[in-house]
Amino acid sequence: MSILECFSSQSEISIQQRCGIINIQGSNHPFIIVINCICIISFQVTHYKQYPPNTTKVYSYFECRAKKTESTKIQKVKYDKTVFYGLQYILHKYLKGKVVTPQKITEAKEVYREHFQDDVFNEKGWEYILEKYDGHLPIEIKAVPEGSVIPRGNVLFTVESTDPECYWLTNWVETILVQIWYPITVATNSREQKKILARYLLETSGNQDKLEYKLHDFGYRGVSSQETAGIGASAHLVNFKGTDTVAGICVIKKYYGTKDPVPGFSVPAAEHSTITAWGKDHEKDAFEHIVRQFPNVPVSIVSDSYDIYNACEKIWGEDLRSLIESRSADAPLVIRPDSGDPLDTVLKVLEILGRKFCTTENSRGYKVLPPYIRVIQGDGVDINTLQEIVAGMKKHRWSIENVGFGSGGALLQKLTRDLLSCCFKCSFVVTNGLGLNVFKDPVADPNKRSKKGRLSLHRTPTGDFVTLEEGKGSLEENGPDLLHTVFRNGVILKTYTFDEVRDNAKIRDCDLEESVD
Amino acid sequence: MAAQDFNILLATDSYKITHYKQYPPNVSKVYSYFECRRKRGGTQFSEIVFFGLQYLLKKYLSGRVITEEKIQEAKVFYQMHFRQTVFDEEGWRKVLEKYDGRLPIRIKAVPEGKIIPRGNVLFTVENTDPDFFWLTNYIETMLVQMWYPISVATISREFKKILAKHLKATSGSLEGLDFKLHDFGYRGVSSQESAALGGAAHLVNFCSTDTVAGLLMAQRYYGCPMAGFSMPAAEHSTIISWGRSREKEAFESMLDQFPTGPVSVVSDSYDIFKACRHIWGDKLKERVIERSEDSCLIIRPDSGDPAETLIEVIKILEECFGCSLNSQGFKVLPSYLRIIQGDGIDLNSVDEILEKLSDEGWSAENVFFGCGSALLQKLNRDTLNCAFKCSYVEINGKGMDVYKQPVTDPSKGSKRGLLSLRRNSDDFIETVERGVGKPEEDMLVIVFENGSIVQEYTLEEIRKNARLLEDYMAPSQHNQDEPKSLEPHQKHIMNGVH
C-alpha cells in the first residue's frame, strides 16, 4: 500500500498497520547515522524542481522582523534590538568542510524514497557537489559580526549559491540556519534582563559591582535536549558569567574560544535531596553540615523544603547565626527560597534576615544585609517577574546588592521563534541570466512582507542602522557594508572569539537611559 | 552504546558536583523518582504519554560512560569553573575500577507509550552499590529532560483527540486521522537534537512529518524503519522567485513537476483569496480537476486569522469547484482538492477552526493541519510540571522515607518512600508510596541496570500503547481530578496527595 492509498483509503486501519504494510527496502540496513546537511525538512527536498527553469542563483536573507502593526498581545518588553549570535556554531558543526559522501547520498536517497513513496530526492544535484567541490557546499554567507546589537527589521545575514547548478542549495540550508533564532533569542532576552538589573543596581547602590553574576543559569534540566543546553547556555554567557549549565562552557570553548580558561563560574550549592535526606527533623543539621563543608567560598542553601520563613527566622537567624556571622564577605551564605510568589517571598525573607542580622544603609540610602549573608531567588524568574522583584525591592528600600537571581525555563526554554519574529526569506534570483528582486507581501498580514533584492547593512550619519534593498548598498555614498563574508564554498573565512562577542554585546550607558520607576 | 565523545561528567548542573559532600554521613542509598505533578485547581492535561527514556539510556547512559580521560577532563574543568578543588575524582575512579566505567544504577519505568494520569510515579532511580549513593541525583539533570519528549507526545495526542472528535462528528469515521497533523516544527526548535526528539515524539501519534531528524531518531533508537511520510510542497521562495506577475506559472509548474501524488502549494504570497479564485479556481481550474483523488492539490494559506482565512478560502473553493454532502450531511470539497492550514495552529485554534467549519456545514475531512512551534517548541517543564525528587534514603543500613513539603506551595510536595504504580480494583492507575506496594502489581519495569538496558520498546509497541481509546469521550478510565467516590484513605494513597 502506498502513501497515496494511505490518504484515500476507505478502511480504518491503524498507524502501525499502515507503516507495517509498507515494504521498506533494506530494512535490515544498519541504522543511518544522522546526516548533517542532508537531514533537512522534507518539503525542501522537492524544491529543486519548483524554481523557475534556468534559475542560476537564489539569494536569501535572515532577519528578526519588526512588528509594524500592533499585536493583540500586550508585550511588556519591547525587544527593539537583537543580539546576533550562534552562526559560528552552525557553520562549524554542520556546514563547513566535506558534508557529503557517496554513502550519505545513497542513504538519503533511500530514506527519502520511503518517506515520499516516490523518487524526488535530488541525487544528481548532490553528486555534482561531491564531484566538483569534493562535498563542500558552494554557498556564500555574509553576516554581521557576532555579538552585534542590531535593531529589529534589519538584515542580519545573507545566503547565496555560488554555482549556477546549485541554485537550490540556498534554501536547502534554510532549516539549519533558521535555528539561529534560538541563540539570538536567548542572548537578546538575557541582555534585556541585564539592562533591568543594571539600572536597578545602579540606582540602589551607586555602582554595578557583580552585575555579571546577578542572573545565574539554572536551565540545564529544563531544556529540550543536551544540544539545546549547550547552545542556550553559551548565549546567556554572552551577557553574564554565572552558570550551572556546564554544556554552555563546552560550546564556547569548542566553537568560539576565550582568553580566560573558562567563560562561566559557579559555587557550591545544596539541592532539596541533600537537605531532605537528613530527615524533616534534621534540617538544621543539614544546613550546618553543608555550610561547614564550604567555608571559604560562597555557598547557596535551598531553605524552603518545609518552611522557608522558619528556616530564616529560627535556623539561620538563631541556631546557626554565629556560624554565619563568622563567614567572610567573599564567602557569604546565600539563602535560596524556591516556592511561593517570588516578590512576596523575597521581601518577606529580606525582612526576616534584616531583623535577625541587622542592615546598614548604603550611599544611596538603601538597606544592605551584612556582607556574609545574601539571597538568591531561583524560582519563577522571567523577565517580567525580574522587573517586578527589583522594582518591589526598591520600593521597600532594599538595595539590589542583596540578591542574585537564577532562571531556568524562562532563560533557556520558554522562548519561540515568534518572540523576535525570526525568519529567512528569498529576496533575489537570477533566471535566464536576469536578476529579479522577489518578495512576498501577503494581503492579510503586512508584518510578513519581506525585503527585496540584494541587501546590505549600513550605519547612517546619525549612527543608526539601515538595511538597503535592491542592491542600493553597493553605491559608494552609502558607506561600507557591515555584513562580512564568513563562509564560502565550505570554508569559514571569518571567526569571532567569545571575548569579541561579549564586547560587541556589552551594555552601554545609552542602554540604561530608560528611567527607573 | 553511549556516544564516545560525550562526557557525562560534564552533563550535569554544576552544583551537583558538590553534593557528594552534602548528604548525611553513612548514607548508602539515594532513591529518587520522576513525575508530572498535578497542579491544584485542576489541570488542562490530565494524562500524559510516557516516551523518550530509551533514547536517553541508549545515547548517554548505557555501556562504558566513564574513562580516565573523561575524569581528567572534568577535574581540570571544575577546578577552573569553581575556582577551587571540589570535584569527586576518587568517587568516579571507583566507578571506573569497580564497574569498568558502567553506571551502578537501577532505573524502573512505566512502559513507553503508556498513558498515565498526572501525579503518578513514571520512573524511579537508585544506586545499586552503597559506595555510589551520590550517583542517583547526579544524573537527575539529564533524566529530567524527559519532560520534553513526554510533553510533545502528550500535546500531540491532545491534538489527536480534538481532531478525532471533529472528524468523527462530521464524517462518521476516523479515516485519515493519522495524517491530519503535520509536523512543521524543524526550523522553530532550539537545536537539531531537539528536532529529532520532538519529531519522534509526534510520530507516536501521527505519521505525517517534515522533521526528517525525527524519522532517523525513531529508526535508530526505536526500531522503526520509516515512521512518517510527507509530500512535495512549495515554500514561498519557490513561488516568489517566478516574480509577482507569474504566480500562475509558478503554481502550474508545481502541478507539472508533481503529476502524481498529493502536492501542497502555499498560496498567500500576495493575495490568498485572489489566488484561490482567479488562479486555482479559474485559470488553472482544468488542471486541478483532472488530478485524481490520490494526487490531490492541497492549498496552503499562511497568513491572516487562521479560522477566518480558512472559512473564506473554503467558500471561494466551493464557488469555483462545487462540493458534495457526505453521509453525515456535511460538505466536502471534490476529492482532488484539500486545504492545509499550517500557520497559527495550536490546541485552541485547531478546535476553534474545526468548530467554525462545522458550524458552516463543512466536514473536517476538508482540512489538514501543520503545526510548528506549538508542537515542538512552545512547551516547557512547567507545561506538565515535571519533577525529579528524592523520596527514600538508607543511612546506617536503615531506610527512611524523605520528602519536601514547602509551606509556601503545597503543590510542590513530593512523594514519600519506595514507590510503585498499579491499577487498583476500580481500574484507576495509582501510585503506592512508603514501600507498601505489592511487587506483582507494580507496573514499573526495570529498564536499566548497572550499565545495561534490560527492556526495550519498539515504536510499534509504543504507538499501540498510546492509541486513542475507542470511547475516549466517555467517562474517563483514569482518575478524576476530584475522586468523589473514594474513601479518604484511598484519596491519600492516590497520587501522593497529603
UniProtKB/TrEMBL annotation, chain A:
Binding site for beta-nicotinamide D-ribonucleotide: 244, 336-338, 378-379, 409, 417
Keyword rRNA processing (UniProt): no
Primary localization class, coarse: nucleus
Alphabetized UniProt keyword annotations: Biological rhythms, Cytokine, Cytoplasm, Glycosyltransferase, Nucleus, Pyridine nucleotide biosynthesis, Secreted, Transferase
Pathway: Cofactor biosynthesis; NAD(+) biosynthesis; nicotinamide D-ribonucleotide from 5-phospho-alpha-D-ribose 1-diphosphate and nicotinamide: step 1/1
GO BP annotations listed: circadian regulation of gene expression; NAD+ biosynthetic process
Catalytic activity field: beta-nicotinamide D-ribonucleotide + diphosphate = 5-phospho-alpha-D-ribose 1-diphosphate + nicotinamide + H(+)
GO MF, any single term: cytokine activity
Gene Ontology cellular component list: cytoplasm; extracellular space; nucleus
Family designation: Belongs to the NAPRTase family.
Protein name per the record: Nicotinamide phosphoribosyltransferase
Organism: Oncorhynchus mykiss
From TrEMBL, chain B:
EC number: 2.4.2.12
UniProt keyword Secreted present: yes
PANTHER family linked to this entry: NICOTINAMIDE PHOSPHORIBOSYLTRANSFERASE
GO biological process: one example: NAD+ biosynthetic process
GO CC annotation, single: cytoplasm
Biological or metabolic pathway of the protein: Cofactor biosynthesis; NAD(+) biosynthesis; nicotinamide D-ribonucleotide from 5-phospho-alpha-D-ribose 1-diphosphate and nicotinamide: step 1/1
Complex formation: Homodimer.
Gene3D superfamilies: Aldolase class I (3.20.20.70)
Protein name as catalogued: Nicotinamide phosphoribosyltransferase
EC category: transferase
Nicotinate/nicotinamide phosphoribosyltransferase domain residues: 179-418
InterPro entries assigned to the protein according to its UniProt record, in alphabetical order: Aldolase_TIM, DUF5598, N/Namide_PRibTrfase, Nicotinamide_PRibTrfase, Nicotinate_pribotase-like_C
Pfam families registered for this protein in UniProt: NAMPT_N (PF18127), NAPRTase (PF04095)
Places the protein is found: Nucleus; Cytoplasm; Secreted
Keyword annotations of the record: Biological rhythms, Cytokine, Cytoplasm, Glycosyltransferase, Nucleus, Pyridine nucleotide biosynthesis, Secreted, Transferase
GO-annotated molecular function: cytokine activity; nicotinamide phosphoribosyltransferase activity
Stated family: Belongs to the NAPRTase family.
